[in-house]
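FIELD: query
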Amino acid sequence: MIKFFLNLKYLILTLILIIIFFFQLPKLFEFEDKIPLIKKDLQKSYDIQLESYEKLKYSILPSPNLSIINPKFYFVENNLKSTDGILIMSINLFDIYNFKKMQIKNIHIKENKFSIEINNLIEDINSLIKVKNKFFVSDSSLLIHEKNDEITKLTNFNYDNSNHDKINFSLNFFGNGFNFTLNKKKIVNNFLVSSKDLGLKCDINFKKKTNNFEGDGKIELLNSILKFKFTQDNERLNLEKTIFRNNNILLNLNSAIILKPFFLIDAIINLEKFNVDKKSFISFLNNIDKFKYKRKINGKFQFISKNRLFNNELFKELFLNLEFENGNIKINKSFIKFEGGSVFFSGELKDFGDYKRLNLNKQLIINDMELFKKKYRITNLVNENKNIEIYSSINLTTGKINLNEIIYQKRKLSKTDLKSLKVKIEKFLIYEGILNSLDYDKIRIFIEEII
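FIELD: result
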């Protein structure tokens, strides 16, 4: 009996040694000559074209795998490229001994640097989602660029399609973490986005037709809610019945986003409520002006409001017609209506990099002077309707105004009068701050001085 157990002990020990030897022996193999087979399987199973690499090595833990060190590859069906990091291929151990029958079980792309062209972003994401075989991405980065210009870089990029009906990925953008989940269903797919850092929740439902997508969505960000319906047809994304609301803003809009050959946005925005603090609004405009990629925003924007703005009695009705083109802004025929009159204006804001110039033509019409005086508490004007045309340009960098011409009641003002008005306008708009143009009492005082 004792002899039996001794033999059993040696048998078990021998078996363990054989297993260890079986698992460790591939470390002695030369895998470099197997690269053509690996390339073939990567392209067939994962749409990956391996261009170059630094090293190929075998590891037993956590399961048998081959690791490609610092690979350079791209996905054949899209423009997603990758460099550096590690590409880990999980394989069946027996395939190591019969490489021609090798099949990659899954891949893990780790600490890689991805890059993608923004003009193909939607198509590339769609083609990536279509890859059915299991693969993971972890601790990687994603650079979004246009040709040779970097637009933004996303960090801590992770991706997991191990569940056939659900794809999870996450990333970090400007220090804020975002989580994404795509639930794939037969008819309607569901896309979820969340960010605890920003208090963001996004829920989008969409279904694919023959050549397009359509669906609806709801986005919650802190105390703000955005609801919309959308359709995507070829190179055009249409947003319809879009409503944005919070405690201070209520707007609805319809817009079209053209993705190719150039990125353009056409939008009509109806402001039903806009009770925003004036200082916050000016700060928002300044941040837009400093936005690094503002020259990429091209298209037409129409702002319409028939309600009081900024929680005061200043504006009765607004129509602002803007056209963005490579950092410049054209102001096409626009107007502001107030009690007793209107201001019609047009012009262009040119951004030369070092300085900005605003060319602005205005026509002030007061067609009910009695109502105008009563509303703005002005007493030193006679009850005579006014028609004033102003042709000017403003160097926004230096704060200097050039009054080219003013026609007051069909009469051109003299150079002396223009010089006097120039001083008053520069003081009102530039030296005392742009907030004056939104201040009810200061506007009243300014009108008394110049009319």
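FIELD: remark
The mean pLDDT is 81.
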